[in-house]
Design goal:
Layout: H1 5-8, E1 13-22, E2 25-35, E3 40-44, H2 51-59, E4 66-71, H3 78-81, E5 84-87, H4 99-109, H5 115-124, H6 138-150, E6 156-160, H7 168-181, E7 187-192, H8 195-198, E8 204-209, E9 212-218, H9 219-226, H10 230-240
Helix pairs in contact: 4-5, 5-6, 6-7
């Protein structure tokens, strides 16, 4: 769906006092932040910190307990899902399908899906598009899952742990693919706890801790203000509960 001029001027993602509970257990606690277009944002935190919940809320797979969330000006729904491309944190490939059959399926569901791009990237991997997924290695399955997601012409890519469980060489390939294949001016949100591996490609970082935003700033500001890498700051914040500095403030809009 085409965005109006007014929508194009809105943030690609905005959370306003967003809360999500599972029963009586809070997963997100009144989280508020804004993300602009054209950014690569690291959604960083240990397992269980609320990262997956936040991405699922943005993708429209969960409903907030309280607060609001907007994607390109829309509440999660039919319109927002047309501008989001979402990679879940688990294998979604059907063992009996192939690259060709999955491309047909994605083309049926997503008018903005570029099947020729997906097939070209699969060939670059050396994967026969007629081969069933059950015959592929774990590394190639991980790459193909990301290929299908990045072959959509989206405004917001939500990637949940795209490099978890794969070898270092595969991680490098995946990160290069993310940067090379996102749409112009699109934003990518990468959820991970493997900070050292992704830090080189991040524009901004959002630390989430026990359902709260602990830090939100540009990666460069975090490095400059603390005199350390983002990975080093992350280890201090989560391992030792140490105080940290956030030049320009810890939460809010990162331009």
């Amino acid at each position: 769906m085409e965005q109006t001029t007014q929508q194009a001027q809105l943030p690609v993602l905005e959370c306003r006092a967003l809360q999500k509970n599972y029963g009586n257990v809070p997963a997100l606690n009144a989280v508020s932040f804004i993300v602009g277009y054209g950014r690569v944002l690291g959604l960083l935190g240990p397992n269980g910190s609320g990262k997956t919940t936040l991405l699922k809320l943005a993708a429209g797979l969960l409903v907030p307990t309280a607060g609001e969330i907007f994607v390109a000006g829309w509440r999660p729904g039919v319109e927002s899902k047309r501008v989001i491309s979402y990679l879940p944190d688990r294998d979604y490939l059907d063992d009996d399908m192939t690259v060709y059959s999955t491309c047909r399926l994605f083309s049926d569901f997503y008018p903005e899906f570029d099947a020729s791009l997906a097939q070209a990237m699969a060939r670059d991997l050396g994967v026969d598009p007629r081969k069933r997924f059950k015959s592929l290695s774990k590394g190639n399955r991980e790459k193909l899952q990301l290929i299908f997601v990045m072959s959509r012409r989206a405004s917001l890519y939500l990637l949940d742990e795209p490099i978890a469980g794969v070898d270092p060489a595969t991680r490098d390939y995946i990160l290069q693919m993310i940067i090379a294949n996102r749409q112009p001016n699109a934003t990518v949100i990468i959820s991970t706890h493997l900070i050292q591996d992704v830090e080189q490609i991040l524009d901004d970082v959002l630390f989430i801790k026990q359902g709260n935003v602990a830090l939100y700033n540009s990666a460069e500001n975090v490095r400059r203000a603390n005199g350390k890498s983002v990975d080093e700051v992350f280890r201090e914040v989560y391992a030792y509960h140490a105080p940290f500095m956030t030049q320009g403030g810890g939460t809010g809009y990162v331009s």
